Structure formats: structure tokens, C-alpha cells
Amino acid sequence: MNHVQSISPRVLVTGAAGFVGSHLCERLLRDGSTVIGVDNFYTGSSRNILPLQNHSGFSLLQHDVSMPYWVNADQVYNLACAASPKHYQSQPVETMKTSFLGGLHALEIAKASNARVLQASTSEVYGDPLVHPQPETYWGNVNPHGARSCYDEGKRSTEALFYSYRQLFDLDTRIARIFNTYGPRMRPDDGRVVSNFIVQALQGKPITIYGEGTQTRSFCYVDDLVEGLFQLMNCDPDDAVEPINLGNCDEFTILELAEIVLNLSGSKSEILFHDLPSDDPKMRRPNNLRAKERLGWKPNIPLKVGLSKTIDYFDLLLSEKGHDNSLVASHPQEQACFDLVE
Ligand code: NAD
Ligand code: UDP
């Protein structure tokens, strides 16, 4: 592989207006990179990238990544894809197209630009795991014919595509298997557990636990994740040949999470139990050894600290005068408010 990384790299970030993407763009701009964001605003929001609006190093292309496009770049972070089960399941065919074709187009851009390219994959590639915690060597236990399949198999097929481009074209690919991440800029109507519980607690509405709340997740604060993505992109190519788990190893039951959110927010919301959705993984925790050894990365922000910051964010968001869901874009038609890249 022959890479010339410029001192101030031109970085393409797909999914730039999303929760993780917007934090990543901020981190890259702080580092002195020029950032070209791409987003179709399916789940993203122009509000998320407002802080970047006046930054001379940032521009945005409003585009659906499942359609071909061209940006010249030194590095490509491919994050575009709805991540919450509520949203990726509501448009399952779009989810698969975004994942696979969006991945293909990111790879083609990287190949033509001689860039390195990072895929935002997911712990969902392990499905409902039979090995715990999950190391990268585990092949997973995924249902190919169910509610989560569009996302899980979309991400798995994109990993396979990245593998093939590396084999065929010697492309410098990197794969981050991201575990549950939370923080400011999640959508209040996102449907994911952290945003749901916080919004419900702040509004005094019942906390909705699916199943008995005995299923587990391991929650990573967004700043930790973004640092991991950055380090994965910038590490020695030999250390990035195989996928790398990025997540926090502290594991909680969903019932424990609900109690922590109630405590931190001082809410008196009651807890209500609902049916467990199909194929909901029973446990999830990353084995982080590879990230530690190859990137020197480990998460630093404990759950209660990260949750407190996230509660403050939602508290402010919900208290804003006239707040309703129009503050978060709910449809691709949202107009971008930045200079569009030609
Ligand atoms: P998000 O839904 O907030 O962000 C996704 C962004 O991609 C949004 O801005 C959305 O508008 C955009 N997008 C979706 N389809 C698109 C398309 N066809 N063309 C252009 N833009 C499109 O989700 P997130 O939590 O920020 O996740 C970012 C990435 O990280 C996703 O690829 C997700 O699969 C992955 N990931 C996230 C988590 C997590 O816990 N947040 C866990 C595992 C993997
Ligand atoms: N969950 C819940 N109540 C909610 C939202 C989610 O009990 O209001 C559960 C969900 O069933 C799952 C866990 O919380 O077991 C994490 O859900 P999320 O959608 O955040 O992420 P994922 O299932 O993709 O890990």
C-alpha cells in the first residue's frame, strides 16, 4: 500500500449530520482537517452540525450515499446508516441499500483517491451472541430472516465488501465494530434505550422496559468512541488489517440502566414492562483487547458521568421554547444550510 497522508488531510465523513458523525466532524476540524460531510438527513439533523456552520474547513453535500457520487479525499469515514432499530426497521430496503451501496461508493472513492477508508460496522454483526464477551474472532449468531436482518446483514455484507476491496486492490481499509454508544445529539425520538429513558424520565412519563430488563448492554460515551475511530483511522496500516471492537466493557442490565437514569435525573417516573421485540440480543459486551493492543485505546468515561452530560443535553433541548420534533429532521427532504460541495 502506498499512502501519502497530507499534513492537513481532506476527510470525507458520510453520515456527518448524525449523532456520531457530527461529533467526529468536530474532532477532525479541531485536528486541522478539512472535512466534507455527506448526509441525506434521514435520521440526521442540521441542528447537529450548527456548531460547524461557520468553520471554513467544513462543507456539506446533501446526498443519498446509495447513489454514486464523487469527492476527492485522503481519508473516508463511512458512517451513513440509521443506527436505531426503530429507524432502520422502518425502511429496511433503504437500510440495506445505504449499508451496501453506501459502502461500495465509499470504497470506490477511496480507491480512486488512494485514500484509507473506515467502515462504521457494529456489534450487531455478532447478532444474539453465544460467546460472551464478544471478541472480533467470533463469527456471530445472526438471524438472516428477521426484523434486525436488514441492518445486521447489511453491515455484515459491507464488511465482506471491505475485505474484498482489500484483497483485490490492496486498499487500506479499516473496520470499527461499534458497540452501543450514547451522548448528546441523539434524537429525542430515536427509540434507542438511552434517549428513550432520559426523555421519559425528564418528561415524567413511564420508563418503557422491553422484556424483563434482564438483557444487557455495554454503553460507550460518544467522546470515547470518536477518539477510538480517530485512532483507528490514523494507526499503522498493519494494525488495522482486521476489524476492531470499539466499546465500553462495563455491562449493565436494562433495568439497572433505568434505575441509574431515574436516580441521576431525580425523576419519579414509574417503570412499565412491554413485550420484548423479536431477536433482541440477550447480552452484549465487547472484548476490548485488540483495541488496547493495536490502538492503545480504551474508553475513559464512566456511565454515570456520560449519562449526566446526556441528561443535561436533553434537559436543555426539551426546555427550549417551542421545542417539538421539528428540531430534529425527520425526513431526507430537510434542507442543508451550508455551502454544498459541487
Ligand atoms: P444516526 O442515525 O444518528 O446517524 C446516521 C447518519 O447517516 C444520519 O445523519 C443519517 O441522516 C445519515 N444517513 C442515513 N442514510 C443515509 C443515506 N442513504 N445517505 C446519506 N446519509 C444517510 O446514527 P449514529 O448513531 O450516529 O451511527 C453512525 C454510524 O455508526 C452508523 O453507521 C451506525 O450503524 C454505526 N453504529 C452506531 C452505533 C451507536 O450506538 N450509535 C452502534 C453501532 C454502529
Ligand atoms: N429497550 C428498552 N426500552 C426502550 C428501548 C430499548 O427496554 O425504550 C431495550 C431494547 O429492547 C434492547 C436494549 O434496550 O434490549 C437496547 O436497545 P437499543 O435500541 O438502544 O439498542 P440495540 O438493541 O440495538 O442494542
Characterise the protein shown here:
The protein is of the alpha/beta class and 342 residues long. The chain is 35% helix and 16% strand. The chain has helices at 19-30, 85-90, 92-113, 149-169, 193-202, 222-234, 254-265, 289-295, 303-319; strands at 10-14, 34-39, 58-62, 75-78, 116-122, 173-178, 181-182, 207-210, 216-218, 220-221, 244-246, 251-253, 271-274. Strands 3-2-1-4-5-6-11 form a seven-stranded parallel β-sheet, with helices on both faces. It has a two-stranded parallel sheet with strand order 7-10. Strand 1 (10-14), helix 1 (19-30) and strand 2 form a beta-alpha-beta unit. Helix 1 crosses helix 6 (222-234) and helix 5 (193-202) packs parallel to helix 7 (254-265). It is globular. Bound molecules: nicotinamide-adenine-dinucleotide and uridine-5'-diphosphate.
Rg: 19 Å
Helix content: 25-40%
Average residue pLDDT: 93
Query: How many strand units?
Result: 13
Give the overall form.
Answer: globular
Helices and strands, in N-to-C order?
Answer: EHEEEHHEHEEHEEEHEEHEHH
Q: Largest sheet, described in full?
A: 7 strands, parallel
Distance between the termini: 30 Å
Category from helices, strands and their pairing: alpha/beta
Q: Unreliable segments (pLDDT under 50, ≥5 consecutive)?
A: 324-342
Strand order of the largest sheet: 3-2-1-4-5-6-11
Distinct helical segment count? 9
Strand content: 15-25%
User: Bound compounds, please?
Assistant: nicotinamide-adenine-dinucleotide, uridine-5'-diphosphate
